[in-house]
Specification:
about 20% helix; single chain; alpha+beta; elongated; 2 helices
Length: about 80
Amino acid sequence: MLPCEGKTFAKPVYLENDSSNNIKQIISNHKEKFIDYIHKIGLHVSYNSKTINMQNKSTTILTLKTTCFKVDFNDNLVKITPLK
């Protein structure tokens, strides 16, 4: 990750923290809440399914424009805020 600057453009999401500083693990532990959050700020989902000769093939594409996030760690919460 690279540092970036900007102004906040949406309300932050708060995720419970078990005293870890590993943001990937924290997001993984709360993936449904985080996916719902980024969906609200601009995640686009595209789904395509084809059946040819009784074989099904499906593709799901998740697209989020390039977004920087400010992450603040507390003892029991992580505050994630998108920057514009």
